[in-house]
Amino acid sequence: MRTMTRQKYSGHFTKIVMGGVDTIRTLKLLGKWSANRAVGRRRPLIAVFSMTHYCNFYCPMCPFGDADKEGQMALARRKDLTTEQWKAVFDKVSKYCVWAIVEGGEPTSRPDFMELVKYLHGLKMPVTLISNCSLLHTIDLDELRKHIQFVTCSIDSTYEESYCKVRGVNPHMYRRVMDNLHLLTEHKVSHYFNSVITKYNTQEFIDQTYFDRARELGASAVSFTFVEDRSDVDYSLLPDRQTMNKVCESILDYMGKQKEKGGGPQVMIPPEYFRQILEHGRGIFDECGVWKSIFVNGDGTVMVPCWKFNGPENTYSLLEHSVDEIWSAPQWDIARTCHDCEVLGCIWYSSQPVSTFARNYMRGLGKIISQERPELAEAV
């Protein structure tokens, strides 16, 4: 729902805040981004801050799922940016990006998590928090609600057995997360689910029970991606092609019924993603759009063009370089022809027109773009 309020800004003029988003700031940055595009200059539009190297979960599809948690904590203590260093990074990035996505590792494991979120809010950057939700009971949720737009809950399964298998945790942790989801509802913190579909959790999507259970847990919307297998391991978590097709067909069926009758969580990823996988076995895009977002690692580095090219020659520190310097690096040319990510939803999204890109983690931003800057709606 679109909500609009008016308030004084610097005592001189009025700004419009749409759904908690500073529309004037957003439109100025979109205009700057558009001007750069007009002269062939690429710059990031969305900021993703990986706040820490530590995560308390053991997800096998994620590099933060390392079983050696003591070693991971030692790494985080050694390499994670300090509070003040993160603030310096936020200052740099906020001059370009219209939205901030805070993730990890598990971002809520940082003692200064709330301080950093408040700082981003003070920079007028709308914030999406991506969390496994296991530590939310340790946070003042009423205070959190004031400083973020919503929480993206990483819930790969709504069933205990498959959840524990995908996440590598015990039943006690599953129940803790479910309790914390109810806390989000009780404290009126807007939240939705993001789920990675692996060979362990396909059935609830095929029989569509996932959607009813997500609604019962307070999620008004859901988003999905099939797992993109890691290149540094010798196992695959991707379902077989026949099962993937069943999942896609069922989700498309649900989306059709939801559009016609309503009543269930909205699916945030467009149907084209599932149709393309049905037809081609993968997502289709002309050129990888990874450059549209700046992904900042826990140590303040940016890998150009992405994590798949993790080498010292492709790694730039935001503590030492400006955003302009990093986005002028020659390694960005790699992304023009790279199509390695076959089913990873976030890469598929970023490679679509910017209005489509804005719909997933930034609900409402797509509407602002379409209404206020329609010439950007199909920009790539």
From TrEMBL:
UniProt organism field: Nitrososphaera viennensis EN76
Highest taxon of the lineage: Archaea
Domain called Radical SAM core: residue spans: 41-265
GO MF entries: catalytic activity; iron-sulfur cluster binding; metal ion binding
Protein name in the entry: Putative radical SAM domain protein
Record key words, sorted: Iron, Iron-sulfur, Metal-binding, S-adenosyl-L-methionine
Signal peptide extent: none
UniProt keyword S-adenosyl-L-methionine present: yes
InterPro entries with a match to the protein in the record: Aldolase_TIM, Radical_SAM_PqqE_MftC-like, rSAM, rSAM_sf
